[in-house]
Amino acid sequence: EIFDNAENALKYLKDKKYPLVIKASGLALGKGVIIVSDQAQAEKTIDQMMRNDMFGTSGHTVIIEEFLQGPEVTVLAFTDGNTIKTMPSSQDHKRALDDDKGLNTGGMGAFSPSRHYTKDIEDYCINNIFYPTIKAMKKEDRNFKGVIYFQMMLTKDGPKVIEYNARFGDPETQALLPLLKTDLFDIFNAIIDETLDKIDIIWENKASATIVLASGGYPKEYIKGFKITGIDEVQNNGITVYHMGTAIKDGNIVTNGGRVLCLTATADNVEEAVAKVYNNIEKINFKDMHFRRDIGKK
Asked: Which pTM was predicted?
């Protein structure tokens, strides 16, 4: 159910079975989804989102959904409005702390491919989720060209979409693009020209892992401006370093955001890719650096 009035949302929450999920309708840097375990927490969340601008205007309209259980999987797809070409599946890690504890973040790491996304599930999603999505958009005169992000939960009743985005995923993209062999420019041209069906998109038959290094305190308050060392050494060991929240100050690279760096490696399987990153990760150093130590275990 969708609500743009706090009083109506609060009335709806009475006598509901918990847990439930409350989502900010607008953009919230990946942090706009809150799982509430009882009515008191639900009422507090509605108050914070809709009345106290927890997510600015993004939370003035909220979506209240059933709580689903099962492994999550992300599938990004190129589309020219007629054809869909999916990228390899991936799995994000949203929570700030190990074992999926702590607050939701923009993503603390990802790996590809997902262990749970089988060929049968892929076929189901293509026929029952992906193509119906672009056909419905076209029917509403919202013909979409670009990248669609499908965040799904693989429940006992089958795959369920829990989030759409009209963009690449972060940090999933940092794990996926190193596997792409086809020139991205050629793919985008085919999307523009609506000839995506005529291009073969080739992916390297490997796995990848990406791990986020965050500022201490993220996703809450954190201090910026700490000097970062070790980037060159890590890159010399075959790790790709993506800058997320950095800046140059007095000739040094310093922290300038909640998620600071993303380290990515590819290998023959997920376990090797993850190990490759973790074997190098502590060569990077900045004050209060934080990262999850369980990426790739899902």
From this structure: 0.84
